[in-house]
Amino acid sequence: MTDADTTTATTDWHAWQESWDRQQEWYMPDREMRFQIMLGGGPPLLAIAQGTFADDDRVGFVTADLKAPDWPAKLPHDS
What we know:
Elements: H1 3-10, H2 13-27, H3 31-40, H4 42-52
C-alpha cells in the first residue's frame, strides 16, 4: 500500500468539506446568495454568450446536465 492509499483511506473528507465551507463563509458571508444567483442566472448569461460569440468559430456551446453521469460524453473533446 502506498502513502497515497493510506492517506485516502484515513482522511475524513466530510470534515474537510465542512471546514472548507466554514472558511469560505467567513471570507464571503453572501456566498450562498452568490451561488443562487449564478445558478438562477444561467439561462440569461448563456443567451448573452451565445449572442456575443455567434460568429466566432473558436467558441462552441454544449448543453448538458452536470448531474447526469454521462455529461462528459457530450463534450466535443476526449480530454
